[in-house]
Amino acid sequence: MMLVLITETSEDGSRIAGSLVAQAIKQTPALRLGLAAGNTPAGLYRNLVDLHRTAPLDFAHVRLFSLDEFIGLPVDSPNHYRVFYHQQLIDHVNFDRTHLYLLHGPAEDIDSYCVSYERLIRNQGGIDLQLLGIGQNGHLGFNEPGSSLNSRTRRSLLSTSTKHHLAQVFESEPVPEWAVTMGLGTIREAQTLLLLAFGTSKAEVVAKAVEGPLSAFTPASSIQLHPNVILVLDREAAGCLKNQEYYRQQSSQVMTSHQWFLEP
Question: What is the pLDDT of residue 105?
């Protein structure tokens, strides 16, 4: 099933996505949750923090994994994704720090490290819910165009377009050449994928991922192979979808007939 939820604004989308994650945690307190970094999921994390404070939403048994991380950044760099996760979510809720399994992108023996991370995910029972964004060139995690659809956690060379985009948020240091990322095959083994995309800059690539041909040159199109995908889009990100009317019918049905699915 691919469920496409279209909201008017990114704020609405973040609220709905946060509610979906909160429901998953309430249903499975020891949820194995895969995190994604970047501007797109930041609003989702803010909503989860708010729900923790007001609902309250308990994170004590949730286990966290991360989608990707840079290789070769200084230890104290503020651009590490693990810093982002702590700032946006981890430091504001009651996670058990022994349940954090975040990629750390070692500069040495990276191949062995990637194998060990795959083993870790497997030994923990797999990921229940994987959060995702989508790059303007179609990358998923740091699986750049041309990545194998069955790829595993590995070192990945960042494309010129990805580095150009990242340069807008890297301030005092150059963007790394390499990152470590879950592979497309690894991502698809999660039980549920929750992908967020907001803004007109994502409209064309969202259409390719959802309605275009399955292609290694649009890595995000690999979600078409997954049996349980939820996309949360704002009106602008949904702008190029040909089947938009049907997706809006889906959204309306879910939001009116199955409110329990969205509200914690």
Answer: 82
